[in-house]
Amino acid sequence: MGGETIINGSHIGSSGAKGSKVLGSSFTLRSLDKNETSSSEGRKIGGRKLADTSTHLHGIDLPNSRIGANKSKVQHVGNDAISVGSNENGHSPSKAGTMLKTHALRAILLTTLSCINLVQPAPQHSQAPLRMTEVEHTLRPLSEYDLDDFVTTYIDAFKPGPVWQYLYHDVEKYINYTWTCTRKILQEQWEEFKDTNTSIVNVITVSTDDRQDSGRREKVVSLAVWNWLKPQEALSNEHSPFSIAAHLKCSDHLDINMTRAEDYSRQALTAMERYIGNLSEPQLYLNLLATHPDWDGHGFGAEQVEVGLAKATLAEMPATLLATGAGYPLYDSLGFHSLANITIQTLDDFPIIWFEYMRWDAEQ
Fold it and tell me: In the 3-class helix/strand/coil scheme, how is the chain assigned residue by residue?
């Protein structure tokens, strides 16, 4: 699958797409016993009964099966990572003032983009059904050494989509500019990513033989960012991994169509305040989900979602997200149901952009 990104609750996806995600706040997980069932009953997640056999992953019991997919082989790798060999069949008044304004806008845009589920595939790919192939990979927490790959996967997954195409111009011409700005932002926000009380940031890596330049033995091909949200929590840029943009030297905005961006941001923020900032209960929000286009078809997106749903189950919370039309089939197959449809009106006769606000409950 390609990508859907979530930024402060916005979702960037394909035309006719639906969805967006929001960043979270501090929330402490509650231990619970009532969601645990006997081995004879197993556990039910996303409307599907899971095998009772499980493995311990980052403090949660993760069944040795995937939601919406067949069983995978899982083994321990230290205390905080698992190695998985899936075996599946089928499926911008004054100059200073102007700069401050554009800085803030870029922060909003980046936030909105990253809060949208990057679970959408590039236009040429089909979301469902996907044919899964066996690939040895590791699902683990994001490390600082992963940030370069994180940015590359994020951009490559989102740029084919209509939201990116609508907001950014001369995408390939300014791709290095966009990459550098995003990379600086993430580096400044690294501490935010490490706080597991507010966020869950996981990546899937595969082994690589391209070690001559980087010296690394693996690369990130999929990523997921979840945020713990509390009722009536303000959608503050403080919670965005991209909010530091206002302090970076990326003020020229060479890569963004500012007229479109200002209009889009206004609508996106209104929608986020209505749906994401008006919560009645704590929830786990899928802020970003993306798989590099070169690694579509391996079920990585579904596997990432499964981890979040297991966390939500243990915390006795619902999981929510903003989905594009392309990502909708995946979420629907995992047991998410639609709560509202969000429409973003566009300029210059560009197709209308749609998102679907969705929710998942352990007991449905």
Answer: CCEEEEECCEEECCCCCCCCCCCCCCCCCCCCCCCCCCCCCCEEECCEEECCCEEEECCEEEECCCCCCCCEEEEEECCCEEEEEECCCCCCCCHHHHHHHHHHHHHHHHHHHHEEEECCCCCCCCCCCCCCCCCEEEEEECCHHHHHHHHHHHHHHHCCCHHHHHHECCCCCCHHHHHHHHHHHHHHCHHHHHCCCCEEEEEEEEECCCCCCCCCCEEEEEEEEEEEECCCCCCCHHHCCCHHHHHCCCCCCCCECHHHHHHHHHHHHHHHHHHCCCCCCCEEEEEEEEECHHHCCCCHHHHHHHHHHHHHHHCCCCEEEEECCCCHHHHHHCCCEEEEEEEECCCCCCCCEEEEEEEECCCC
